[in-house]
């Protein structure tokens, strides 16, 4: 058993399931937004769309999925290329710094999304 | 004349590895890559590589030939040579000891992790533990592995994390014992695999399937392990 304190769900199965579920939610959301955009929107219809609670919930769900999905995916990339084995201690330091930056960025996106969805 | 380029490195005399070019007259015959190495070794006795059975059973001569891993003894020139050129390198991702000889230590320690032996804590029967033909059939495609390391050393996930990702060869053997009706420690085996690296570093790109000289499918076995882990955890 390899331990991994910085992974999203601390377990391989948890990360794997979260990655699949969040992927499906994101796909559904982007199909929905793509359909709306292709059907033609103007300011009024766009505002009316996002005035509905279910769209707000769906959007928040999509952003939370994005945060989880990005965390798991980028954690995988970082633990492939920036490791103690490849770069010595520098690898660990660099990886942790980047993970914190990614975490902050995703947190900002989530809070910003809440502000956008419920602020107007 | 076949143009052969061979990876050379002798840590006692070379600062760094280099490629050495040879010309070989194969007489138009479709010989195996191992035959090429044998003939070149007759010219230059310092060329080092592992070999034993020369018929694809022992798994000693896993090499990277024109960019693809395989067993030199059962790879005919017609299957790998293009434009009359053959580039032979050691298996990628493992430390080179000398020329085409790699240190398989990391590969074996991952194999050891999966406890590749039957474990059964029930009293042993008088003669032998019986298995139905149906249960025995579940081991087909799993037990044939010869541990040549062609699969694991073609896997990028194993290149980056050979100390944490078990790799296709180890996982194929892991499933060989998870799937065995006579093995009773399935739960303990699965508990050791439920982390983000051991199994889940496999992203299913199937390089292992592409190179396996025995035609086995580690990706499918890994999929079975993943399903067992998901079923166990949910």
What does this structure look like?
The complex is a heterodimer of chains A (120) and B (234). Chain A has 120 residues and is mainly alpha-helical. Chain A has a single domain, classed as Fumarate reductase/succinate dehydrogenase, transmembrane subunit (3 helical TM bundles of succinate and fumarate reductases), CATH 1.20.1300.10. Chain A is 83% helix and 0% strand. Chain A contains five helices and no strands. Chain A is elongated. The mean pLDDT of chain A is 93. Chain B is an alpha+beta fold and 234 residues long. Chain B has two domains: 101 residues, Roll (Ubiquitin-like (UB roll)), CATH 3.10.20.30; 129 residues, Alpha-helical ferredoxin (Fumarate Reductase Iron-sulfur Protein, Chain B, domain 2, Orthogonal Bundle). Chain B is 32% helix and 14% strand. Chain B has a five-stranded mixed sheet, covered by helices on one side. Chain B has a two-stranded antiparallel ribbon with strand order 6-7. Chain B is elongated and about 60 Å long. The mean pLDDT of chain B is 96.
Topology overview:
The complex is a heterodimer of chains A (about 120) and B (about 230).
Chain A: H1 12-38, H2 43-51, H3 53-81, H4 84-87, H5 89-119
Helix pairs in contact in A: 1-3, 3-5
Chain B: E1 2-8, E2 18-24, H1 33-43, E3 62-65, E4 68-71, H2 77-80, E5 85-89, E6 96-98, E7 101-102, H3 105-113, H4 133-137, H5 156-160, H6 167-178, H7 186-193, H8 207-211, H9 218-233
């Amino acid at each position: 058993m390899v331990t991994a304190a910085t992974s999203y769900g601390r377990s391989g199965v948890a990360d794997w399931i979260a990655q699949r579920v969040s992927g499906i939610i994101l796909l559904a959301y982007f199909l929905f937004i793509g359909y709306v955009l292709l059907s033609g929107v103007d300011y009024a219809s766009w505002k009316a769309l996002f005035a509905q609670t279910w769209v707000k919930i769906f959007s928040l769900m999509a952003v939370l999925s994005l945060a989880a999905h990005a965390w798991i995916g980028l954690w995988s990339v970082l633990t492939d290329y920036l490791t103690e084995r490849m770069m010595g201690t520098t690898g660990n330091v660099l990886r942790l710094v980047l993970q914190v930056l990614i975490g902050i960025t995703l947190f900002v996106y989530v809070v910003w999304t809440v502000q956008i969805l419920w602020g107007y | 004349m076949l143009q052969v380029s061979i990876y050379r490195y002798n840590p006692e005399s070379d600062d760094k590895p280099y490629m050495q070019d040879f010309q070989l007259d194969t007489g138009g015959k479709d010989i195996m890559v191992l035959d090429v190495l044998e003939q070149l070794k007759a010219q230059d006795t310092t060329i080092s590589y592992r070999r034993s059975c020369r018929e694809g059973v022992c798994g000693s001569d896993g090499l990277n030939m024109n960019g693809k891993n395989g067993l030199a003894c059962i790879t005919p020139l017609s299957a790998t040579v293009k434009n009359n050129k053959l580039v032979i390198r050691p298996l990628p991702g493992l430390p080179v000891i000398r020329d085409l000889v790699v240190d398989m230590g990391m590969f074996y320690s991952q194999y050891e992790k999966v406890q590749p032996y039957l474990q059964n804590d029930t009293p042993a029967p008088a003669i032998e533990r019986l298995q139905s033909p149906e249960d025995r059939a579940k081991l087909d495609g799993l037990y044939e592995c010869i541990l040549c390391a062609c699969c694991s050393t073609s896997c990028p996930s194993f290149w980056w994390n050979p100390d944490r990702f078990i790799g296709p060869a180890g996982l194929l053997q892991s499933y060989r014992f998870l799937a065995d009706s006579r093995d009773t420690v399935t739960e303990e085996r699965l508990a050791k695999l439920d982390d983000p690296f051991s199994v889940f570093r496999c992203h299913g790109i199937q390089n292992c399937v592409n190179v396996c000289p025995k035609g086995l499918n580690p990706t499918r076995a890994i999929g079975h392990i993943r399903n067992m882990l998901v079923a166990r955890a949910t």
